[in-house]
Amino acid sequence: MRHVISSYDFSREEFHKLFELSDEILGGKLKPNVNGKVVSLAFFEPSTRTATSFATASWRIGAKVIGFTSVEGTSVEKGENFADTIRMLENYSECIVVRHKFDGAAKFASEVSEKPIVNAGDGKHEHPTQSMIDLYTVYKVFGQVDGLNFALFGDLKYARTVNSLLRALTRFKPKKVFLISPQQLRARREIVQELNYEVIERDNPYDVISDVDVLYVTRIQKERFPDEMEYEKIKESYVVDLKLVEHMKKDSIILHPLPRVNEIDRRVDKTPQAKYFYQASLGVPIRMALLYTILTG
Amino acid sequence: MRHVISSYDFSREEFHKLFELSDEILGGKLKPNVNGKVVSLAFFEPSTRTATSFATASWRIGAKVIGFTSVEGTSVEKGENFADTIRMLENYSECIVVRHKFDGAAKFASEVSEKPIVNAGDGKHEHPTQSMIDLYTVYKVFGQVDGLNFALFGDLKYARTVNSLLRALTRFKPKKVFLISPQQLRARREIVQELNYEVIERDNPYDVISDVDVLYVTRIQKERFPDEMEYEKIKESYVVDLKLVEHMKKDSIILHPLPRVNEIDRRVDKTPQAKYFYQASLGVPIRMALLYTILTG
Amino acid sequence: MRHVISSYDFSREEFHKLFELSDEILGGKLKPNVNGKVVSLAFFEPSTRTATSFATASWRIGAKVIGFTSVEGTSVEKGENFADTIRMLENYSECIVVRHKFDGAAKFASEVSEKPIVNAGDGKHEHPTQSMIDLYTVYKVFGQVDGLNFALFGDLKYARTVNSLLRALTRFKPKKVFLISPQQLRARREIVQELNYEVIERDNPYDVISDVDVLYVTRIQKERFPDEMEYEKIKESYVVDLKLVEHMKKDSIILHPLPRVNEIDRRVDKTPQAKYFYQASLGVPIRMALLYTILTG
Fold first, then answer.
1. Which residue of A has its CA nearest to C287?
2. Residue ranges of the alpha helices (H) in C93-124?
3. Which parts of the sequence belong to the Aspartate/ornithine carbamoyltransferase Asp/Orn-binding domain (chains A, B, C) (predicted)?
4. Which residue has the higher pLDDT, C200 or B235?
5. Most buried residue among A72, A163, C109, C241 by CB atoms closer than 10 A?
6. Burial of C21 by CB count in 10 Å (0-12 exposed, 13-18 middle, 19+ buried)?
């Protein structure tokens, strides 16, 4: 039994094992079957993409899915506390996938539950299964994760996918890691300080874009700015458009955890660099591999 | 692989094949099994009946069901666009059932998705699987669809079930087709003009009711009238009550896509003509037949 | 085929049969399989715990689950009446689990439906499957239900779990049954009068607590008091805290249907008397036993 709370919960070897398991699933060599074990979705913060992806992965490995994908109409609304809800699901299922708006909620759930907890995003903290998808996509395209130049782009301060990805990269040997964001949305100091590789911080994507192998895009949200004028000023500089893509290497790739709003121009979808839909398609097999490992481990 | 967007997507032979497949399922001769393929429900417009019917049909043929039956708590609320949501579900599933409040949404989804799209109602446009149920009910009761007198009754302008039924009837040889509605809710000219049979339009159901074999009732909604007085005036004339049923043939039938509010008096439920609950009971087998055809085709 | 509307629908022998079936399921001797029959959840009043418990029980016996756990986005919102919704689910499934805010809703559903109805809570009336869990917990801990002293504590007037438990106890031979509540929330006279055992009513738990084997706690809701001052006065006296537990017998137990808000101090969770999480864990096996009995009966 193991919990998946942070990218740090996986070693380099374990990441590679997951990639290989996922390859076997995609290739039809492995037909995982957990024989009707039950997976709980405990989405205190709503999400279609992630919830549906976990549900699909669960069904496809022969599990059953229960739980909720929004707290409306749940006991949470009657005032039940988080721990009691987790204890309920612990009784019902063999694994609990938790999403919550508070940092640390998944960790707290893991202290309450004797069944494995999978963090599907907790506040501004982490979203480790997204990093598994991200790096699996890199692995599929480049054959490996090591030796590449990464650029994380957009909101690096509040995006939990960024925290998880930065931490996941400590398990590999990236060549260069660029962090491209407005001053207000720089990656958090406490995370940057704990990394075992150096990062290069920039405001302007054009300074480094021609050097990038993997461009990882996150959305900048208006709400992060105290002043709408501030937001309007920087907004345009943090959109991936055809002009930016022209400066990218031929064999570089653009990733995005999705959903995307305006931060990638739709015309980019047809460039060879656009790999975010392919990336999304890898969410189900890698989560199948993860849940299968947890439920049969 | 095929999409089901309009009643026009099915030929006379294909309708009959569906009816026969559904007969085999009901009779227990065929136990369809798609071995865990995944069906997505993408209900951007909420619906219990149709969503539950598709879900039941999917589970009963051995499929798994994912997706959403309301957009609350979905990425759609975060601003994700329709195409990206469809692309997500395309990654997760072998077939996508779409309901949307906009005309043409299903068609648009079929242009984005490489997986088959089933239109479960798009705005005021079409709802083709409802017509399959409607005509399958006629087929079960009368042994055939040809040679009968149909009357479509109520709101013929905004009801997508009416559009789909009128178009589905082009695949058969109805004897007479009466369209009974207030002036304001006449069937759309562009649809009437494309039909390969003649229609007879009337205001007053009593003019033709004794001639009708199949009375197809739809609800008139107050919101369709700019002036509530207008609505109050016509409301009573478009209710199926015991008095109207008395004028109907002994072996005629009353259909309704349900849910029904006040447009059929509850006392009618016990008349031999009332076949709308029987009709509803055929929703699952015919959708089993359709999904089975799509998923194994 | 049978409906489960009230605790009265089960005889002493049938309660014991359920307990034994549930024991076999827990012990792994019985692996119930209903081969894909369909269970409907018709939760007109939202509930996570009960809905998820029934869903889990259904999946674990090889059933499929359809329906709704909240009326938002359902036909009910379009004005469809309750009977038509039940008739819809009757077409789709082999069993319908109903929760509704109106007393008598489950009974009414059973008059409409030819498929078995399971009452999962109707207004202030009953919640019979909760009593099955309650008494099964007693049976597991004490080896039997007879000969024990029960105390029902808190809101005895509006809590449907109390009505069902009082009625279920008529099938057994409780030694003493204490009813501990404020004057305003006394158990209903019409229910007390129909019981085949005597009850002892008290305001103050300390009068009887040292005599109690099974303390059954329910939440007192502020809304029940016309005057908030009234509520504030009595509130503190109806909380189970460490002080009260100190007066309890070593081998007595505390039960609660959950969710719990403040009526049991969280520090009580670690006392040996606290059995409400264990009780919750028995919800799934006893409901598996019940649904299996209904679906194969």
1. A92
2. 105-112
3. 146-293
4. C200
5. C109
6. buried
Mean per-residue pLDDT, C86-101 = 96
Residue A225 lies in a domain: yes
Same domain membership, residue C110 and residue C41: yes
- Top pLDDT among B65 and A226 is at B65
Q: How far apart are CA C15 and CA C286, in angstroms?
A: 10
- Any known ligand binding at B257? no
State how far the Cα of B295 lies from the Cα of B283, in Å rounded to an integer: 18
Helix (H) or strand (E) holding C83: helix C82-92
**A178 belongs to a structural domain:** yes
pLDDT level of residue A78 (50, 70, 90 thresholds): low
Residue A287 appears among annotated catalytic residues: no
Of A36, A67, A87, the CB nearest to C52: A67
Q: How far is CA B21 from CA B58, B130, B173, B277, C46, in A?
A: 15, 17, 22, 21, 38
Alpha carbons B133 and B165: distance in angstroms, whole number? 10
A15 is in which domain, residue-wise? 7-127+282-296
Tell me whether residues A48 and B64 touch, CB distance under 8 A.
Answer: no
**A175, pLDDT greater than 80:** yes
| Average pLDDT for C138-161 | 97
**B78 has binding-site annotation:** yes
What percentage of chain A has pLDDT greater than the value 70? 97
Query: Considering only CA atoms, which of C207, C267, C203, C279 is closest in space to residue C241?
Result: C267
As a whole number of angstroms, the distance between CA A159 and CA A122 comes to 11
User: Chain C contacts of A79, Cβ < 8 Å?
Assistant: 259, 261
Contact assignment for A74 to C277 by CB distance below 8 Å: no
Distance separating alpha carbons of residues C65 and C60, to the nearest angstrom? 11
The model's confidence at residue C150, banded by pLDDT at 50, 70 and 90, is very high
C-alpha to C-alpha distance for A226 and A158, rounded to whole angstroms: 14
Q: Are residues B64 and B140 in the same domain?
A: no
pLDDT of residue A1: 59
Q: Cα separations (Å) of B137 from A34, A196, B283?
A: 41, 69, 9
Pair type for strands A214-217 and A149-153: parallel
Element (H, E) at B285: helix B283-296
Query: pLDDT, tens digit, for every residue of C32-60?
Result: 999 999 999 999 988 888 999 999 999 99
**Residue B234 to residue B238: CA distance in whole angstroms:** 7
Same domain (yes/no): C276, C134: yes
Mutation for A interface: C26, C39, C56, most A CBs within 10 A: C56
B160 in a known ligand binding site: yes
The catalytic residue among C3, C99, C115, C256 is: C99
Q: Does residue C136 sit in the same domain as residue C120? A: no
What is the CATH number for C253?
A: 3.40.50.1370
Asked whether residue C141 falls in the same domain as residue C88, the answer is no
For residue A139, is it within any domain? yes
Distance CA B274, CA B283 (A): 16
> Tokens standing for B221?
């909604």
pLDDT at residue A128 tops 80: yes
User: Does residue B230 register a pLDDT over 90?
Assistant: no
Q: State which residue of chain B sits closest to A269, comparing Cα positions.
A: B84
Check whether C285 has a pLDDT greater than 70: yes
Helix (H, G, I), strand (E, B) or coil at A232: helix
Domain count, chain B: 2
- Both tokens assigned to B201: 């339009």
Residues of B assigned a catalytic role: 49-50, 78, 99, 127
